[in-house]
Amino acid sequence: MTETDAQTDAAAPAETETPTFADLGLSDAVLKALRDVGYETPSAIQAATIPPLLAGRDVVGMAQTGTGKTAAFALPIIDRLDVSRKNPQALVLAPTRELALQVCEAFEKYAAHLRGVHILPVYGGQGYGVQLSALRRGVHVIVGTPGRIMDHLDKGTLDLSELDYLVLDEADEMLKMGFAEDVETILAETPDTKQVALFSATMPAPIRRMSQQYLNDPQEITVKTKTTTSATIAQRYLIVAWQQKMDALTRILEVENFDGMIVFGRTKSVTEEIAEKLRARGYSAAAINGDIAQAQRERTVNQLKSGKLDILVATDVAARGLDVERISHVVNFDIPTDTESYVHRIGRTGRAGRSGDAISFVTPRERWLVAAIEKATRQPLTEMALPSVDEVNVTRLERFDDRITAALGEAERIERFRDIVAHYVRHHDVPEVDVAAALAVVAQGESPLLLEPDPEPARRERPERTDRGDKKNRFESGDRGERAPRRPRDGMSTYRIAVGKRHRVEPRQIVGALANEGGLRRDDFGAIQIRPDFSLVELPADLPRGTLERLADTRISGRLIELRLDTGGPARRRDGDRAGRDDREFRGDRKPRHRSSRDER
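Request: output the structure for the sequence above.
Response:
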């Protein structure tokens, strides 16, 4: 489904067959890792780029996302690392933390059979402590966003004096996001002897100037990609917050008429977590990933084929080559950042002329990926809305009707229960319709047949100050017996963040994250109360809009903090009801924007 055409500035000899990775000169350990992940032949960008990089030459590659360029620069770097050295030998700059994490995961896969290789992602929103500890222990490869790399250089916590390899990934995107100055500063901090690889989908004048200034006689490689998806696959996407994905998946499963489904997660831990939560909700689901033994993988796939299993949760590697006729839907729980992976994933449905559905979950920060996929595949993706409670309930009632209809077809069993119902009616003087309703309640069990309507968004109006007594009573007599919160001091307001005791968060982590990411001073903090599922923090009441925007993407212990004003009772809801309903003042009403370098910090 993918055709590629590579053009380089060096005349390549005519070849009668496609080269293998072994033909490119990679070591046995790297080749073994490639076999493990199922790579058989190099893509055009890999075949054209790996040999000159292995030979030590600088490279400028023009290639769209999805052509396999991560392996094109990662494999030569992994092949030539010296694990005996502790200082960073390779630095990869990426425009977003998501891409940085993906590139880091790719490095880890390719280095699976090399002992002692340490790879560190460095990006804004992650605590400095984790990064500083890793840097002190020794790191061979750093994959990071320019803003956080600049922070470490400013603090003197990152030494690039022994750097051998530098990669600029998605260079045009970094310029669009305002990273040009940071990138040039980082380049200036690195040794002149380093080898540089620059990859960009386009070659605007600033990129061209940068390559002329910082690269030494680079070999230019251009890959033209034509990627198509089957016209029989209906492609949709849903804008959904990261923490709402599981609930969104559950609602989609309720309303979509699916036969078999594959849900794609980015990592093995995500696939296992999704499968476990789906099973807890009553779905027949199983996970397959790189850690699953081949025999178990075959058993799971056979269960999917036979109908004993309805939902397979998989990573890209585990689903490679999977062809099951009954797969009607593919869901990208984590949307891939390269179009080639997207095409391969959704190609698991709509095969052999059959129709299929592909649904991708897209966080607000990933909107740009939709446009990139549409451009690369030349197929539109239709935005869909989260199925409403009413839609879910209509579907549940239809299925309940179907179960009643099916039961009515079992005449012998119906006759037996008809006698039981008649006996109850005679002895208790209860209408038959009430007995039928009571039997439905018994059959339903603990799980309600219908969902309750979504609660109204919390009102933004604050109570009048004359209502203080009522407000106090409301907290003190609340359903969970929570005590009234202390009043913040003058000029301060109480803010709520979505991390608490069960996330093992401590006050120092809260102060550190908010100070570093929001530019706050130590005296900007008042009291901090850590509750089981959330925390309350006193901060200045007049926080600037820019500070709120920077803090909107901040994470503590890997979790989005979802900073918002604490409004009392409605904000005390359990975590499951929290997502996306009270935070529109700070996050939901903002239009997408281009981020500057400081946003990644």
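The CA atoms of residues 375 and 520 lie 41 Å apart.
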